[in-house]
Amino acid sequence: MAQPKRRHSHARKNKRRSHHALKVEGLSICPKCTEPKLPHRICGNCGYYQGKQIVKGAEI
Hints:
Layout: H1 10-16, E1 28-29, E2 36-37, E3 48-49, E4 52-53
């Protein structure tokens, strides 16, 4: 197997790793209780999804 002839610099190594950072989850606002929630998921606070109650949540 081939071996590197020269050492890679810190800058080159860090440029390669620039895409390894964690991405921030996009949050949306629940229209029923105005709490932040993940998009396309049931609201954990009120239990509503697309205007219908799916599970019982803590009512405000």
